[in-house]
Amino acid sequence: MEMTQQDIRKLLNQFFDSVLSYLEQGQLETEIIKPAVSLEELEKIFTLDDPGSVANIKALVDQYLASAVRTGHPHFYNQLFSGFSLYGFMGEVITALTNSSMYTFEMSPVATLMEKELITKMAKLVGYSAGGGTFVTGGSNGNMLAMLAARYRFAPQSKLKGLSGLSPLVAFISHDAHYSMLKAASQVGIGIEHVRKIPVNGQGQMIAGALEDAILDAQNKGQKPFFVGATSGTTVRGVFDPLEEIGSICSEFDLWFHVDGSWGGSVLLSSAHRDLLAGAELSDSFSWCAHKMMGAPLMCTVALFKTPDILMEINQISGTDYLFHDGQDIQLDLGNISLQCGRRVDALKLWLAWKYYGDEGYEKNIDRLFALAGYAAKKVEQSAQLRLMNDVKSLNICFQIRPENVSADAYNDITVEVRNRMVETGGPMVNYAYINSDLVIRLITANFELRKTHLDSFFDQINKAVDFVLAKK
After folding, report:
1. pLDDT tens-digit series, residues 61-84
2. Which of 177, 215, 245, 323 is an S-S bond match for 173, by CB 3.0 to 4.6 Å?
3. Distance CA 241, CA 396 (A)
4. pLDDT of residue 55
5. Half-sphere exposure of residue 13, counting CA atoms within 13 Å on the CB side?
6. Residue 31: what pLDDT?
7. Spatial CA neighbour of 174 closest among 149, 143, 137, 148
8. Pairing of strands 132-136, 301-305
């Protein structure tokens, strides 16, 4: 159905009215975080069976927004991201409006310069004086790219001939590393069974001595250690592995040292907390998700490399002359170092936000989020029926609900029931996970708009949900 310019203008005006209404409602303390909608209801509404019109497209947009989880609300604590970024939103709109791709400078001249500037800046923050990198589709993709680079360094023939006939390559990660490391081993042909999980200490940090023992054991078995993945900000407890110790071991055994800073990389912007990443400069590669602690819209991740030439080596192949033409722009054609061909402009939203906040603004926000995490931890410690289950090193506060007169074997069930009660009633949305055999609520303080009053309200609603659950017993 062809639309007139008048139709387009009308629909866009209505669309942005809906956007503004959504944002205004999202500021209300009483706003429902996760609307109660059934699968059957959604399947009935969102169907391609009937043709569209300006009127019903507008209605569908409104129904989508009404059904969406409000990830921008301060009471959304469920993931390692939260909040609404005005400048990120503007960047996303412009990205969709211009609909360009990041493979050549000719196609995306300004975006290319923005991406290169961001990559250079972030690489220097890690400690790579001549580093480089690329935007990727998330931390998982960044981890996989790092493992692929390590595979090429230790088995360059694998690019053409695969891994057949070679001694098994072995990777090492902590027991609490993100599951994407295992997927990466599968994706690059190492095999999940050739990933060794290194034990962690009581706080959740990789034990460096155990890593060294595992490397020696692999060598004794005729295997070829090649990759160590440390984590700076584990998914559940927010723990930072000891990078200086791990880096020293990697140097001793000549192994690729990768840091998964998907969650905690942004701590580099804080002079008060960047010591958590001491030793990052020893690494060969580093994943960093700006859509987490920096508040950019999903997805916004960089994969950084101390020696960036390896990106060209692993990605450049024949048959690309239709796209990459010889000329003065060839060094600016970022598709030459990218896993994919077409790639959306993710740099613009971060560039605009960084331009607004600056280093100082980001540092202030991150420091305040750390202070709020500390405030939440104290709220837990002061409660008679809550038990803090981790040493709060960053923005992860893990606690279990342990009411009086409830047996210890019921703590896990009570905790998840209380969490589900809050979510089902549209209240604060917070996730849960396991620390060893203990099921815990994992509270994340990642929203730039979060205030102490929100946390006070959150814990009040926890107590009300506890009372409700216990009353049913």
Report:
1. 999 999 999 999 999 999 999 999
2. 177
3. 15
4. 78
5. 6
6. 85
7. 143
8. antiparallel
pLDDT for 1 equals: 60
**Which residue is listed with tokens 């891994």?**
163
Q: Distance (Å, rounded) from C-alpha 445 to C-alpha 429? A: 12
Q: Are 292 and 81 in contact (CB under 8 A)?
A: yes
- Residue 154 contacts residue 147 (beta carbons within 8 Å): no
Q: What pLDDT score does 54 carry?
A: 74
Low-confidence stretches of the chain (pLDDT < 50) are: none
Residue with tokens 């990389």: 265
**pLDDT for the residue numbered 369:** 98
CB 170 within 8 A of CB 223: yes
Per-residue CA distances from 34 to 52, 81, 179 (Å): 27, 16, 26
How many degrees, rounded to 5, is the angle at CA 384 between CA 381 and CA 389? 45
Instruction: Give the pLDDT score at 328.
Output: 66
Element (DSSP H or E) covering residue 305: strand 301-305
Q: State which H helix or E strand residue 358 sits in.
A: helix 347-382
* 3-class secondary-structure state, position 234: coil
Which candidate, 253, 181, 241, places its Cα nearest to that of 212?
253
**Domain 101-344: CATH architecture, name and number where available:** 3-Layer(aba) Sandwich (3.40)
Q: Computed over its alpha carbons, how large is the radius of gyration of the chain? A: 24
What angle, 0 to 180 degrees and rounded to 10, lies between the N-to-C axes of helices 54-67 and 5-25? Answer: 20
Pairing, β 132-136 against β 224-231: unpaired
Closest by Cα among 265, 243, 251 to 143: 265
Contact yes or no for 403/438 (Cβ under 8 A): no
What order do you get walking across the sheet with 438-444 strand by strand? 76-77, 429-435, 438-444, 396-401, 386-388
CA distance linking residue 279 with residue 230, whole number of Å: 11
pLDDT digits over 224-267, tens only? 999 999 999 999 999 999 999 999 999 999 999 999 999 999 99
Structure tokens at 187: 């994706």
**Of 143, 444, 181, 138, residue with least CA distance to 298:** 138
d(CA 213, CA 83): 43
Fold (CATH) for 360-472? Aspartate Aminotransferase, domain 1 (3.90.1150)
Q: How many residues does the chain have?
A: 473
Residue 1 CA to residue 150 CA, distance in Å, equals 51
* pLDDT the model gives residue 472: 85
Q: Give residue for tokens 């959304």.
A: 76
For 209-248, b/e burial (b = at least 16 CB within 10 A) is: ebbbebbeebeeeebebbbbbbbbbbbbbbbbbbbebbbb
Helix or strand holding residue 55 (H, E): helix 54-67
- Rounded Cα distance, 380 and 265, in Å: 26
